[in-house]
Amino acid sequence: MSTEPALMTLTEVARAIAMKQVSSHEVTRALLHRIAQWQPHLNAFMSIESEAALKAADAADAELAKGKVRGPLHGVPLAHKDMYYDAGHVATCGSVIRRDFVPTTTSTALQRLKDAGQIRLGTLHLAEFAYGPTGHNAHYGPVRNPWNVAHITGGSSSGSGSSVAARLTYAALGSDTGGSIRMPAHFCGVTGLKTTWSRVSRAGAMPLSQSLDTVGPLARTAEDCALLLALMAGPDPEDSTASHEPLSDYVGATKGSLKGLKIGVPASFYVDDLDSEVARVLDETIAVLKREGADIVKAELPDQRQLSSASQLVLAAEAAAFHKRWMIERPQDYGSQVLMRLQNGLAVPAITYLEAMRWRGPALAAHNAATAGVDAIIAPASPVPAPSIEESDVGGGPNAPALLQRLTLFTRPVNFLGLPSLTVPSGFTKSGLPIGMQLIGRSFDEATLLTIGAAFQRVTDYHDRVPKLPS
Predict the structure, then answer these.
(1) What burial class does residue 291 get, using C-beta atoms within 10 Å of its C-beta: 0-12 exposed, 13-18 middle, 19+ buried?
(2) 3-state secondary structure 130-180
(3) Does residue 198 have an active-site annotation?
(4) 31, 117, 343, 365: which one has the fewest Cβ atoms less than 10 Å from its Cβ?
(5) Which residue numbers delimit the Amidase domain (predicted)?
(6) Catalytic residue among 95, 180, 308, 426
(7) CB atoms within 10 A of CB 107
(8) Quick one: how many helices (H) and strands (E) in the chain?
(9) 24, 95, 107, 156: the active-site residue
(10) How many other CB atoms are found less than 10 A from the CB of residue 359?
(11) Rounded to two decimals, what is the model's pTM?
C-alpha cells in the first residue's frame, strides 16, 4: 500500500479517510496537484472544480470529526465521464450541441455515489456523444494516453481511462455500448467493468443505444470496481429497464480463490490474427491463472463475427433515432466522423433492425449452451495495443478505417449479448504500452469475474504500475 494519497487505490484511500489517517482535504489537494501537472499533457478533464472540491472536502472532514459518516466513499474525490447528469452542473456530453446543457436531475448511478460520500472533482473528457472508439474529439481535441501521449486512450470513456491511469482520480464512471469501458481499460492499463445490461440504472446518463448501453466503473483494481458496483447496482424507479435480479456480495467476491473455477480459452476468433505482443500477454495471463488454481479449457463459441455485426447494426439504428432531430437541424455542429456514423444509422431498414433484435435471445441461448461448462471466458480486449493518435484519426491513411473496425472487434459481441466483462491490466509491450485481458462472464455474474480479476491482481503488479509525467 502506498502512503502517498494520490497513489492509493479507491479502497485504500476510503479506509484511510474513515480511520482519519489522512484528511479529505489532503487527498483532494494531492489529486488537484497531479491534475495541474498532467492535464496539459493529457487533456483528460472537461472541467476542473478545484475550489468547490476543496470546500466539499473541508465539509466532509468537519462531518467526520463530529462522527457523521455519509457512506463508504465519505470524503473521497472522484471525477466521472461528462455524460452523467448532475443537477445544476453543465454536462457537455463531449459535444457542441450540449456545450451549455445544464440538467435539472442527477443520474441515479452518480447520485448513489454521492449518497455514499464522494466529492466532485470535475468532469472527464469523452468522445463526442460517446460515439467513437479512439478518444478523438473534433471539438475538444483528443485525450492522450499517459503511458505515451502520442497514442490513443481508447473511447468513448477516454478521459476516464486516462485520468485513472495517471492517478488523477481514484475511479471514474464510464459507459460501455460497444467497448467504451474495456478499450480504455486495455489501452491505459486500468481495470474496467462492463456490467450486465440492466444491472446498473441508466437514468440520467446520456443515451446512445437503449439496447446496448451499460453503466460501469474504471478503477485501479477489481476490488475498487466491486466497491463501486455494490453502491450502484440494483433496481431504480427512474429506469424501468433496471433489473430486480438479486445482488451479490461483490466486495466479498474479491477475496475468493481461483481453485475450482473453470476458465475457457476461445478456440477461434479471439485468438486469431493477434498482434504478437497481445498473443504473448494472453499466454502469460493464462499461465498465471492456471498456476493459481484455475482449470483452463478450450471453448468453442458460436460465430462471434455475426454478433459483432449485429451489435454495430443495432447501435447505428438506435443512435440515429436519438439524434435524428439534431442531424436535421444542426448537422454542422457534429464532428465529421460522428455525423457519418449517425447518418449510416438512418440507412438501416426497420426489418433488418427488428431481425437483429429478435435474434438476440437465441444468440444468448446459443452462447450459454456453448459455455455451460465454464465460469468465464478469457480473451484479449482488443487484438492490438494502443495505436497512435495520428494513424487512427481522420486522414490517418488508407488503413485507418480498417484499424478502427479492428479495435472493437473483441468487445462488440459481449454488448450484443448483454453479458458482463471485466478487463484487467495484464502486461506491457516492449515499448511500454499496456495490454489488458477481458474476462467474459454469465449474465449477472459479475461476482465471479471480480473473483478472478482480484486473484490475478494479488499475484501480479501490472495494475500498480504508474506512468511517468512527460518531460
Answers:
(1) exposed
(2) HCCCCCCCCCCCCCCECCECCECCCCCCHHHHHHHHCCCCCEEEEECCCCC
(3) no
(4) 365
(5) 26-450
(6) 180
(7) 27
(8) 15, 11
(9) 156
(10) 15
(11) 0.97
How far are the Cα atoms of 72, 378, 382, 471 from residue 146, in angstroms, in the given order? 29, 26, 19, 12
pLDDT score at 1: 67
Catalytic residue list contains 421? no
Peptide bond into 156 cis (omega under 30): yes
| Residue pair 455/288 in contact by the 8 Å Cβ criterion | no
The C-alpha cell at 401 is: 478505417
174 strand-pairing partners: 216
* Exposure string over 44-57, b if 16+ CB within 10 A, otherwise e: bbbbbbeeebbebb
Amino acid type, 127? A
Q: How many residues does the structure list for the chain?
A: 471
Q: Does the domain at residues 5-464 carry the CATH identifier 3.90.1300.10?
A: yes
**C-alpha cell read off for 265:** 480459452
High-pLDDT (> 90) share of the chain, %: 96
Q: Which one of the listed residues 24, 81, 157, 426 is annotated catalytic?
A: 81
Domain positions in the chain: 5-464
